[in-house]
Structures are given as structure tokens and as C-alpha cells.
Automatic annotation (TrEMBL):
This is RHS element protein. Pfam families: RHS_repeat, TEN_YD-shell. It comes from Escherichia coli. Residues 413-533 form the Teneurin-like YD-shell domain. The lineage of its organism: Bacteria, Pseudomonadati, Pseudomonadota, Gammaproteobacteria, Enterobacterales. NCBIfam families: YD_repeat_2x (TIGR01643).
Amino acid sequence: AAGDLAGEITGVTDGAGREFRLVLTTQAQRAEEARKQHTASLFSPDTPRPLSASAFPDTLPGTEYGPDRGIRLSAVWLMHDPAYPESLPGAPLVRYTYTEAGELLAVYDRSNTQVRAFTYDAQHPGRMVAHRYAGRPEMRYRYDDAGRVVEQLNPAGLSYRYQYEQDRITVTDSLNRREVLHTEGGAGLRRVVKKELADGSATHSGYDAAGRLTAQTDAAGRRTEYGLNVVSGDITDITTPDGRETKFYYNDGNQVTAVVSPDGLESRRAYDEPGRLVTETSRSGETVRYRYDDAYSELPATTTDATGSTRQMTWSRYGQLLAFTDCSGYQTRYEYDRFGQMTAVHREEGISRYRRYDNRGRLTSVKDAQGRETRYEYNAAGDLTAVITPDGNRSETQYDAWGKAVSTTQGGLTRSMEYDAAGRVTTLTNENGSRSEFTYDVLDRLTEQRGFDGRTQRYRYSATGQLIRSEDEGQVTQWYYDEADRITHRTVNGDPAEQWQYDEHGWLTTLSHTSEGHRVAVHYGYDDKGRLTGERQTVENPETGELLWQHETKHAYNEQGLANRVTPDSLPPVEWLTYGSGYLAGMKLGGTPRVEYTRDRLHRETVRSFGSMAGSNAAYELTSTYTPAGQLQSQHLNSLVYDRDYGWNDNGDL
């Protein structure tokens, strides 16, 4: 740029080759434009007083940061798009206006709709005293003499008051709930070290000399510690209150290369020289590999999972997925408009879906390949207000000023909701006029629910927010937890109910309860990768421990890590055969094929062969067909005993 804009950036070209023009204006230009508009308005019936030079000065005073040249960004235009060279927007992507003091006044989107508005204190330039979003009420702010916000006024929700003292800030909302933030440090290192919550509980935080979080103590006094790399600040380990530790490892680029969980299992990640993910190994040992087209590609061209199945992805120059080819070579294609919004999805078997948007980018229509269209309507704030189905039926939703749904009408029936100032649902009235009411504590947790049938349920919580007690018409249930926040047992009206037990890895090993005088339990076994290998059900005499009955089911996995076999007690194993990444192709019982599946290009079942022997000698074949829209159309059995046909209306209802 030259002249008054010398040294300013007026154009940007992104990595995809799109060119943007940044329209900059000076204070003098904006003042001249304001005077022209004022002169034009003199011919209107309501003639204002002449606009003085001081009302919109040609220059701005300096600030504590130095001179203000008055240069502001007024608009951003897309000037060149390699993918849509002949279809450039006829309006700016975004537009900004400013006050006579150079303060941001309004923001307009690409449809020229005002989406943000700001108001400032005339006596204190740059101090925002109100702002609002399109279709929403105005939020207002009050300040003290030091320029600190002391009140935030929300006409449609919670308002807040702020009180500042030495090393602490008190925040009180319009429900008179109070939080106190205690701070320590200075010179950019001030941190909240204690937070007093509205229920009187408190949490604490600790930091190192660089202001990085090193410990947190919850409301129950339990401490979690964070180990940090002294140079990079990366978290190297997290130790929870029960002493269990999670460790993190990094490469020279500060990318996570391994995570070792408290149970000893490890997940790993490897990267290439540019820092792109090339392999990812799960806790159970399965590895996914990523390949890229060239040294400059940021998105993978293929992924290969532990089964050896490869998926291919094709991307646009803007990072949008254009095509996805699954492990069987079947492809899904995607189309987009010039704003990057998806306009069409084309799947195998001729199934397509098309989307349209308004000039604000909101979805207005979804149409299938048969021309059946669902339409959407919105209010000024962007809330979805109506859905019109293909048969013309209309469902509507109304909202309060803050965007919370207050009623939904469908088929002539209305369901309504009421809220308190904190935005919590207090009353739900269903379509037949029955009401349910809800009550909350000062931490927004549900404490009482009165149902439409008059039944009342009450809830209590621990200091850390866990449900510890519920009451339901005289039935009192209590929950108990260990230091790792895992549930350990439950009582009902004081009598023992379920019990949960865990091993040293933290894996659930036993779930038990007493039933009709017997101890009934399920015991779980795992392999060294943490995968479930067995479930043993037992019934015991709780007094003597005598085993009265048991039944065990074993689970096995193939070399690729997929579950493929279940063996119940005293029965032949059931084994399932898969292809690709796990699509079911058949099942065996005791090594003998019993069921085989034939699938289409969407991997939907089309033929199921079963009977005395699966395959060519099958006694039965169940054939499934689908509509052009992808819905199940028929299921015909070759014995004519089981034939079904399905009909659907234009809305997709059975």
C-alpha cells in the first residue's frame, strides 16, 4: 500500500491460492463519508443539526500505546478463487463499521446482515458498555473508576456483579450465588489459587514459578499433581488422588509419541519429518498407518488399519473431503459450494442427497435423489424455527430471547418448556398438558424432579459432584465410590445392593448382588492387552461361600485384534467371519459354517444363507431389497414362510 496506508497489508493469498483484498480506510475517509451521508439526510423531512468537524474528526488522538493513525479494516473481499474463478461473490465476505472515535461499531456478514453491534462510553474512548448478537438482547456493562467491569447486565438471563479487593475477586449473580476467586502473583503471572464455590466448597490450584499449573485440589481435599518438562512446559505425568499415574512422552517437536496409562498399557504415535502422523498404535496393540500423496500434503491419502484394510481419501485444495473409498473399493463422493458448505453426497447404489443454503450459510433444504425435500426456516438469531417435511407437514419451535426453545409444535400438538434465570428447565409441559417440574441446587445440579404422575424424586451429591443419594417415593438409594471415583457399592433402603470390585489395573473384575438369599455375581477376565476374555456367572451361599452354580463364556480375538469367537460352557464355539474392517460375512458353530451373508456396495445385507449347511447347500435363503432412497423394501424367504414387504411415505416413515 502507498500514501496514507503505506506499510499496511492490503492483500493476502492463502496456501490454496485464494486471493483476498483487505479494504482499509482512514479516519479522514470515514469522516468524509459521514459528512456526505449527513448532507444527503438534510433533504429528509426530519432535518438534523449540521454535523460539526468535532463530531467526526479527521484525525484521532494518541493512545497510551502510541499514535493512532486511524486506519481500520472495513471489508474483506474474495478476489480470486482457483476452484471457482468465474463465480466470485458479489459482496464482501465481511464488513465492519466504526464510530467517530474509531471504535468497532458493527459487523456484517456476507449477506450484509448485521451480526454484531457495539456501544461505547462517550467519556472513555474504547470502553465497550454494550454489545449484542443478531436477534439477541443487548448485554450491558458498568465500570468502576479504575476501568474494571463491576456489573454485567443480561436482560434475558443471569446478570453478574464483580467486587475487587486485594488478591481476590467476588462474583455474585442475579440469583445471589457467590463465587470468590483468590489470586496470587503479579507481573503477568497472577493466577487463581483458590476458588470458593456458591455452596461453600472450595478448590485450590498450584503453579510453578512460570505460572504453569502443577496441582489441583478438589472440594473433597483430593489432590491431582501435574509433572512438567522444565523447558517446554509439556505435561510429563499426571498423578491422581489415588496415586495412579499417567505418563506422556514427546518428540523434539513437542508431539505426543506415547501415553502410558495407570494400568500399564501404552498407546503410541509416530510422525514423519514434517511432523505428520504416520502410525498410531492403540492400547491393545492395533496399528493404523497413514500415507500422504507428497511431502506437502497435510491430509492423509490412505489409512490402513490392523486388518490390512486400506481406505483412500481425495481432498480438495481447501482440505475438503471429495471422495472416500472404502476397503472394498466402494466410493462416496462429496460436493461443496464456493463457501465450503457441503452441497451433495453421492453414495454407491445410486443414493444421493443434496443440500441448499441461504445467503447467510444456513441449511434451508435437503433433497434426496427421488426429489423428496425437507425444508428449514430460521429466525433472525439463526435458531431453527420450522421444519417442513416432504408431505408438507410443518413442525415449529419457538424460542425465548436468549435462544432457548420454549415450545415445539408438531402435528397440532405442543410441548412447552419454562426456564429460570440461569437457563435451567424448571417446567416441562407435554402434549396432553401434563407437567413435570425440576429444582436445582446452587451448582446447577438437579435436586428434585416432580413427574407428571405426581411422583417426586430427590437427589444429593458429594462435594465433587457425584450422585450419592436418591429418593423415589420412599425408596432411598445411596452410592459409594473409591478414590478413583469408581463406584464400589450401592444400598437400597439401607440394605446392600450391587457391589463392584476392581483389580490393580483398575479393570472391573466382579459385579455382584444378593438375590433371594443368594450371592449372584459376574466375574470378568482380561488378557494382557486389557481385552475381555471371559465372563463367569456364579451363584453362591453368602454365608458359607459354597458355589451352587456357575456358567462361563470365553471370548477370543483374531490376529488383527477383532473379536471373532465366543465359547459358552459345554457348547461348541460360535465364530464369526469378517471381511475388510469387520463387516460380518458368516458364522460358524463348532467349526461348521451355519450362516453366510452377501452384501451390496453399501455393505447392506442382501442375501442370508442358512440351514443345515450354509453356502450353496443352504436350506434357506433370505433375500433383502432396498428402495432407491436406501430403505428396507422387502425380505423374502425361499420357503415362503417368511415374506415381508415394507412401505414408506414421502417423509421416510414406515
